[in-house]
Specification:
Protein name: DUF5131 family protein
Radius of gyration: 18 Å
Largest sheet: 7 strands, parallel
Structural class: alpha/beta
InterPro entries: DUF5131
Number of strands: 12
Helix content: 10-25%
Organism: Ruminococcus difficilis
Strand content: 15-25%
Pfam family, one: DUF5131
Strand order of the largest sheet: 1-4-5-6-7-8-10
Length: about 240
């Protein structure tokens, strides 16, 4: 697995953005996270070594983890980014976004019903955003679709959308950071049950820092939030 950040910086647009990890990290270096800039790694997928082979090995690539792939400032840059993605058909790009409503801006002419090597994952932190974003995700020409409830802020019902059979997987997780909002294990299990009934893959990614289970609140250190989720052993493949 690799991470490719072609640009950096973002703007908070919904409830899940409140305690964004990227803003927290930038603040440590007095960096303005709202300034969107192209990074030095912009061309990373198509960089080549001296022997002519690609520097980035074949495999899974998570794109734009310190911004949003569909942010307004990147509309022109995204045209080249799509070109890189098309060229590297041996890589599978996962694009996680809160801006599914901007998906069609700067879309390649040859997109058709989607590139086989692209998964679009819409984040839906609460019921409002699920009902706002998932219908768009289902309507748009995309070959591989996922949903991420991260940070998961409340109990969410998405079964009607999973019944379409178009959602390949759902990921859930709590919020990290010192002021993390609570994530309740019951919410996670409820989504898992919806996935089980609709035969959808499910992944419990991380507990978050403020985790509630069986009526008790646990403060989970960042370094073990993912391992604690794995120990729950509730993923559905």
């Amino acid at each position: 697995m690799s991470i490719w950040n072609p640009w950096h910086g973002c703007h908070k647009i919904s409830e899940g953005c409140l305690n964004c990890y990227m803003f927290r990290r930038d603040a440590m270096y007095d960096k303005d996270s709202t300034v969107v800039t192209k990074t030095a790694n912009f061309h990373e997928p198509v960089k080549r070594k001296r022997d002519g082979s690609y520097a980035l090995q074949s495999g899974l690539v998570y794109a734009c983890m310190t911004s949003d792939f569909f942010i307004e400032e990147a509309d022109e840059w995204r045209k080249d980014a799509w070109r890189f993605i098309r060229e590297r058909s041996d890589l599978h790009f996962v694009i996680i976004t809160k801006r599914i409503h901007r998906f069609e801006v700067s879309l390649p002419d040859d997109w058709g019903d989607g590139y086989e090597n692209v998964t679009i994952c819409s984040t839906c932190e609460n019921q409002r955003r699920a009902d706002e974003r998932i219908p768009l995700l289902l309507r748009l020409p995309i070959k591989h679709r996922k949903i991420a409830h991260e940070p998961m802020l409340e109990r969410i019902d998405i079964e009607q959308y999973l019944e379409s059979g178009l959602i390949e997987a759902v990921t859930c997780g709590g919020e990290s950071g010192d002021v993390a909002r609570p994530c309740c294990y019951d919410w996670i299990l409820d989504i898992r049950e919806q996935c089980r009934r609709t035969e959808t893959s499910f992944h419990f990614h991380q507990t978050g820092a403020n985790f509630i289970k069986d009526g008790r609140r646990y403060r989970i250190p960042r370094k073990v939030q993912m391992s604690q989720a794995r120990k729950a052993n509730i993923d559905i493949r």
